[in-house]
Amino acid sequence: MKLKNLVSSTLLAAVGIACTATLAQQAAKPEQLIKWRQSAFQVIGWNSGRIKASLDGTYNKEDVVKAAHTLAAVANSGLGSLFALGTDTGKGWHDTTAKPAVFSDSARFNELSANFAKEASELAAVAQNGDAAAVKGQYAKLTRTCKTCHDDFRTAN
Amino acid sequence: MKLKNLVSSTLLAAVGIACTATLAQQAAKPEQLIKWRQSAFQVIGWNSGRIKASLDGTYNKEDVVKAAHTLAAVANSGLGSLFALGTDTGKGWHDTTAKPAVFSDSARFNELSANFAKEASELAAVAQNGDAAAVKGQYAKLTRTCKTCHDDFRTAN
Predict the structure, then answer these.
(1) ipTM above 0.95, yes or no
(2) Which pick of A139, B119, B128, B135 has the fewest CB atoms within 10 Å?
């Protein structure tokens, strides 16, 4: 029994170190975690597209503010917890496009995620207080953080 | 030419009144709009679950604040634009679960959406400044707005 407890404790500790998932998320099945993260990135894509449409067409400040605020909230929501152990392969809405490096080089993945969250927060602030030109500049900074992370951590699809 | 322009203008005005979609979203295909809204509700479900897990288990203020903030942002993001004309039937990640009433009684749908957004914003404020008991009370108010809307506007699935 003691050995069994020790093994259980060690496993739990390893899970706790390797990912930042809450207990609720640890209880969720890999398929659900992958669905959630694929959904979060769809919401990011939707809102990124709204901002781009405003920059390319007629600038709609109210729409850009809403979109940037949503982007920032999702970017800062704790997406890393959805890349928990056991979700390196598998299917959510579709096969995961996460490269193995997400799990083998989590330090760099977390660093790039933090950059993305930082630039998204800055975009929300600029959208509220700045003009279209300022938003365009900050949006370009944000999309560079997307590309950098996708290059290293997402398979082409 | 004048008649054609008039017809085009009238059609555009009708679309503008019938939904709040931006030009970019009007350009998106129904399948994409349905994917985006299904994704948004998955993100809502993920974050609602995080708050419930904290209330049912060990309260984690940082996690609840992040989750409530994400919920509020998505609830206030302009989800109504994803229920655009032509998306009453069809498949995103799966067949839409929107009832025809979403499109035939958009006034009530918008009213219930606004209630949801209001209670989600209040939850974000309570999460930041209140204790677990206060969050529990406001979370119950929020989930009642979910249920009311689902009863009227979502098919059982």
Answers:
(1) no
(2) B128
